[in-house]
Amino acid sequence: MGMQAGAATLENSTEVPQKTKNRTTLRPSNCTTRHLSTGYREALGEYLDGKKESEEDQSKSYKQKEESRLKLAKLLLCGTELVTNIQVAADIREIHRRVEEGEIRRQRLEKLENEVKTSQDKFDEITMKWEEGKRKRIPQDLWDMLNTQQVHCAGLIEDKNKLISELQQELKTKDDQYVKDLKKQSDDICLLLERMEEQVKNVMKTFRQELNSIEKAFEAERRELLTSNKKKWERALQAHNAKELEYLLSRIKKVEDYEKQLNKQRVWDCEEYNTIKIKLEQDVQILEQQLQQMKATYQLNQEKLEYNFQVLKKRDEESVVIKSQQKRKISRLHDILNNLRSKYTRQIRQFEEENQSLTSDYIRLVTQFKELQKAMRHFALLDDKRFREIWLMNEEEAKDLISKAFDVDRIIHTQHLGLPWTAPDFWFLRNVGPISQQQQRSATQILEEVLIQTEEEGMEEATSETESYLDLPKQVSMKTTRKILMLLCDESGFLIESKLLNLLRPLEKSECYLLKLDAIFSALGIESEDDLYKLVNFFLKYRVHHSPSSQERTSPMSALDPGEQTDLERQKEGSLVGGEPEEKEVPPSPTLIHPNDVLKILEAFVMGLRKPRDPPAPVKVVKYVRDTSKDSAYWEALATVLPYATQNLWDALYTALEKYHLVLTQRAKLLIENNSLEKQNTELQMLLQQYLDSKINSELHVPPTQVLRAPTK
Amino acid sequence: MQSMQATLGTPTSSALSRFSTSTQDKSSTAGQTSSTGPQPSRPSIIPPPSKSKGWGTGASGGRMRRIIAEDPEWSLAIVPLLTELCIQHIVGNFQNNPILKQLLPEHKQKVLDHLSPDLPLAVTANLIDDESYWRRCCTQRWPVCHVAKHGGSWKRMFFERHLENLLRHFIPSTTDPALILELLPLCRNYVRRLRVDQFLPPMKLPPRPRSGELSESGSEAEVEEPATDHYQLGDLVAGLSHLEELDLVYGVKDCGMNFEWNLFLFTYRDCHSLAATIKACHTLKIFRLTRSKVDDDKARVLIRSLLDHPALEELDLSHNLVGDRGARAAAKLLSHSRLRVLNLANNQVRALGAQSLAHALAHNTNLISLNLRLNCIEDEGGQALAHALQTNRCLTTLHLGGNELSEPTATLLSQVLAVNTTLTSINLSCNHIGLDGGKQLLEGMSDNRTLLEFDLRLSDVAQESEYLIGQALCANREAARQRAPNPSCFLSPITAKGPENPAG
């Protein structure tokens, strides 16, 4: 009982701080329940959750919520504590009970043990006495002893009984206590239930209150929001209305405008439509007319065509006939054609044969012509030579005579007249050979000559140097020139026109070369003979320049001008020697000039040639026509080399000299006599000498010679 | 308590009678369903009086036609559709010819709406999955239904409670065990939890009148042990393929003044058969055996069978007689299973047992909750546990209420509080912590940021320090709420305590 009271006080004492903690929100009678229905709790939790998520940023509601939450948490906590207080109190009561129970049990056990011990002692004593009694023989003693034994046993049993009754008493009190405990527990459970119920109610109430307050807060907030939003909305609406009105007005205006425009447009369209309609109707009428016309023409045409068709049919028939005829004709003509063809081939063959024979004739004739030409040239040369020889002979003769005359004249003048004599100087005196105008021949001519000559050389294998009448290639042999020219021809084919090449193809090689070179020269601008020689020299020079080994050797003839100057001298010499051109030096082989260098040389040459270009003189020389006009004058002049004054002088002198001659003849006769005398003298001397030289002289001691010699000396 | 005692004077007979009546009801209502069943549920669609009237008038004659025209209720819509009639017929003959799967969904729904909740389970159990039907069944049978406690499934609730009801009133050697085994194929797929809070002993009149001595009755019970065996759960549990929770009390409820010690006998044979049962049940997650006088030996038998159990997460042996040896066995179990919750409240564990538990706890990584309420581990055990908590990183809830603890344990615990970051709830109520101990605990609390609950009621702690500790806890709770923005967290510690039984 004391324990219960203690528990009750304890409980009260624990409740006090709870109440103080609960403050105003929790009334002191608050009892909470542990068995708050879970569903309700979950619903609440969800509710709070949802609220929190949706309205977190709204401060007012959030504050309210927080407040409520804290309040409710506290309420729940305190409620659970209140409820569990009962359990805790029961626990501590149980502990106290256990402690007490333990203590009581221990005491009881001790007591029982003591009892057992004492009763055992007593029992032992009694049993001892039994032994003792067995030894007793005296019945009275035995009776006494039995009595005492009985008393002892009774005492023992009484003790035991007392103990049992005590224990039974205790058991009874325990039973009572059990009942009391049951009652107490049921009370506790009742209290627990009561508290739980109250707690449930309380929690429900507070939850509802809080819910209400939260809702109110939300409501207020919502209202505020609503009003503010409504204001905003109204403002926006007003603005929108104003704008709408504006738009409407402008729209009405626009509509009117458009209507006007539409009307205008409509009227205009109507007019246009009418005009177009009229026009189109007219067009339609015209077209109908045209259509009818066309129909008429069509009918006409149809008839015509039908007629034409008939005609054509007939014609066709005719044409069939004609066709057959034509076919026949064609076959006939084919036959003819075949005949003609065979004839034609035959003729072609014939003509070819003819052609061949003619070409052979032609070739023969050409060779004949060439031979003739050669012969003519030969004869011309011969004629020339003869002419020259005759001329030279005559001239020599004349000149001999003239020089005689001059000698005579000089002798007369110096010896006879005692005058100083001067030799008359005339141009013809210096002249050797036939007087001829040295005209420049064209390059082509030279070419021709060169080529032909070399060709002949090649063919005849003869030394051309002696025969060459060409006096111009002075330092250069014909061969070299030719080789150079061939090279030029081969390398500078690009200068020849393609048309010309086509034409040249059938010709012979030499002619081909000739024409080609002609074309090349015309392209290069080489016209005269000098140009040609310049070219050849240029080539040689180039080669010399590019082959230093032969530089020294070719240096004297490298310059062209000195070569030309020497021409005259050589002519003089030639006149004396007989016009044989000498080649002092054999030019190095032109094969040394590489074909690749030809173009370079040509380029350099053309550059050099261009500058000193003379206006080309129209040189049209008739070949082999000698100018004989000066010849008579020449000879006349030769005849009259001594003037008539001297002749007269000479006549006078002659007579005088004749006289002088006579004198001299006489003198000569005297001289001859003198000479004969001298001869006799010498003969005598010789005889003397003979004698002197004989061997007798040596044998003599005094030779007569010694004697003679001394006076002779 | 008193009222309950009055109402339930003879538990066995009343239970029997109730069961028989219920079965009778079923059979009787099954026949009536065709006529009475659907009518109250849909008065709007087919009002029976108007229907009969309509047909009657239509058939009687021409004179009545005028009346029909005037009858404002008459219309063709009143004539039930053929489908309606068919459904009615299906509902009426459902017991003999259950047609459900072949129907269209809307028709199926209609049929289910009109089925009687009293149909035999053999017909409905594996055929009907509709929750609303089972809801009607439950609400008809029991006035209070917490469907949330049964996983939110009415069908599961129905079968669980039905089975529990059968087991509660099973009397060995009197009731036919086939009654339960018949039910097994029907409920095996739905029962996940068995919560039997009483097992009746065999019905027998004690041959000897009760002697006054308690010790004698106890010895007698031991002698007649085979006769007091309870129902063997083995066959049943082996048949339930989804069983996850087993909550048993080997005792008689509401005995009141008819108390006898042998009503509360948990015999060795019971113990062995139960051990074999739970060992065979691999899906079991929660095993509770409370208020059943489980002493050390029986506890060891049970726990040995639970060693290396693949699924077990919670073991509850509260309100028994488990001593130090049983506690040592539990400690061994801790290291040989994935146990998360261990409840040894109101047993006889002393310092030795607490030390072995502490040793196992020091390196355990599974246990979340340990309850040693109303034991007597004293300071030695308390200190051992505190030492273990310095290394443990898993335990969140620790209940050491009523363990004769005093200041030395408080000193060590304050050190633990400064270090540990996993503990969220500690209960030290009903101890002798003392003023100094309270101060030390307050110091420890000043460094702790994780503890949410700390019960120091009736432990001789100064009110001031208790209040300050309360403030610190409040701060911690706020911080925890901030960390996990779930407003239900301040409710969760309370719900965690929910299923705890009051000390009785």
UniProtKB/TrEMBL annotation, chain A:
Compositional bias per record (Polar residues), positions renumbered to this chain: 10-36, 548-557
A Pfam match: NYD-SP28
Coiled-coil stretches: 92-129, 157-243, 270-368, 667-694
GO cellular component: axonemal dynein complex
Family: Belongs to the DRC1 family.
Assembly mode: Component of the nexin-dynein regulatory complex (N-DRC). Interacts with CCDC65/DRC2, DRC3, GAS8/DRC4 and TCTE1/DRC5.
Protein name as annotated: Dynein regulatory complex protein 1
Automatic annotation (TrEMBL), chain B:
Family matches, as SUPFAM superfamilies: RNI-like (SSF52047)
Predominant subcellular localization, coarse grouping: cytoplasm
Pfam families the record matches: LRR_6
Keyword terms, alphabetized: Cell projection, Cilium, Cytoplasm, Cytoskeleton, Flagellum, Leucine-rich repeat, Repeat
Entry's family note: Belongs to the DRC5 family.
Role description: Component of the nexin-dynein regulatory complex (N-DRC) a key regulator of ciliary/flagellar motility which maintains the alignment and integrity of the distal axoneme and regulates microtubule sliding in motile axonemes. May play a role in the assembly of N-DRC. May be required for sperm motility.
Protein name as annotated: Dynein regulatory complex subunit 5
